[in-house]
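Deliverable D5.2: sample structural annotation.
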Amino acid sequence: MDILTVRERQSGLELAVVVRGFLQQQGVHYTKSYAAVVSGPTSRSLFAISAAKGWKAKAIDYVSAFLNGILPQHEMVYMQLPTGIKHGRGGLVGLLRQSLYGMKQAARVWYFLATEHLTTLGFKISPYDGGFLYHPIRKIYLTLHVDDCRVTGPQEQQLDWILAEIAKRFETKDVEENKPYLGMEVKRQMNGDLAVTQNRYIDEILEDFGMDKVNPASTPMAAGIRLEFSPDEDSGLDDDFTATRYRQGLGSLQYLVSSSRPDLAFAVNYLSRFNSRPHKKCWAALKHVLRYVKKTKDHVILYKKEMVEGLNPVAYSDSDWAGADPQYKSTTGYIIMLNGAPISWRSQRQTSGAKSTTEAEYIAASEAACEVIWLNDMLFDAGLVEGKAKVCSHLRVDNKGAIDLAKGESLTRRSRHIEIRYHILRDLVEKGEIMMEHVGSTANIADGLTKPLARPAFEEFVKRIGLMEIGKKG
C-alpha cells in the first residue's frame, strides 16, 4: 500500500492511501473487474430528448465512491499497513473487507452497490446499457459513470426526490447543470437548447502539442490525401516527432471524437491505421488535424428544444470502396441522428476486403443497422420513443445495389461470399425492424465519415450533422 498524501485535521492526521492493485492475481484476489458505465450514445440520446421536451437535468458526484464497496467473502485481499502506523506487533497485515482505491475490483464492487440501492428505490437497469437506469413510474432517467450521476425527467420534484434518497445512503456533492460532465461541457441556452462542447479540453491538447498559436486549417485533412506505410518503423523520426508522441496525439483526439466531434472521426481513424509505423508525413497530417481543431474549438453539438425531425433515431451509412487505405480496405461510416443532432457515429476500416462498391456499402449498412436497432430498442424499453408501439428504424443509404441485397433481391455469385454476420441486415429488413431508404450521394450525411472532403463539401457536411458555433445557427 502506498501513501499518496497526508492531510492535517483537527482530529489528527488523515492519510490518502492506494492499494497496489498491480500485485493482485485474478482468481486469487479478485474474480472479475468489469463495471458498466453509461455509453456515449445513451448520454447523447438523453441530451436530445431532454432538450426537445424541455426537461431539466441535475447531477451529483458520489464522494469517495470506491470506499463504500463491500468485498465478496471469497475475495481475500490482505495488505501491509501503511508506513507510519504503529501497531506494536511485527508482521501484522490487514484483511480488507471494503474496497480501496487501486484495487482491480473496486469499480465493479461500487457499481453493484450503487445499482442495488437504486433498484430498491424502484429503478430498472436497462438491459441494453448497464449505466442507464430508469424509474418507470416516476419517469426519472438516470445515467451512471462510476461516481458521476446525472438525472433528467419531466418533473423536477422527482429529480429532487431521487437525489435526496441517494444522499440519505451515500455522501454526495451537488454539481451544477452547466459544469463539465464526463469531460464535456453541457450548457443550457437561454432558449432551452443544450450545447455540448469540449473547448477547455481542446485548449489543453493544443497547449500540450505546442499548437495553440499556429495558423488554423479549414478542414481536418486535405482532399485526396493518401498515406503509405513507411518501410522502416523509425523512418523520419527526429527530436520533434516520435511514434509515442504520435500515438498520444491520436489518443487525445480520439476522446474528442467519441464525445462531441464526429467531424474528426474519419481523420483520426485514418491516421490511427499508421500507429504501428508512423512517419513524418503522418505527423504532418496529425498537426493539420490539430490546426483544424484550433479553428473549430468553439463548435458545439446543439440539441434543440424546437422539434426538428422527431424523437426516433434515423441512421445514415456510407462507404468508400478501397479508397485511401494503404491496404485497400474499404471504410465504413455511419451516423445516427435524433431530432436533427448526432447521437452516435463511427468511421472505421472494414476488416475484410470488399469486392465491389455494393458489398462495401452493404457491410457499412449492416453495422449501422445494428447500432440504430440497439438505440431504438433501448429507448423503447425505457418508454422514450414516440408512440406506444415499437417503430421501424430508418436507414438511409445511397447505393441501390446494397438496398436490393438487403431485401434479398440480388443474391448472386458476385455477392454470395459475403460474411454471414453481415446478413443480419437482411433479417432485420425481413422482420420489418429496419426500413432501407435510398438517398442521393449529396444527401447522405455519412459521406464525410468515409473520406476527406474538399472544403465546400466538408463545411456542408459539418452543418448537416448538427455542428455549429453558438451565434451562427442554421
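Annotation notes: Residues 197-295 form one domain. The longest strand covers residues 341-349.
The annotation will be released with the project's public dataset once the embargo ends.
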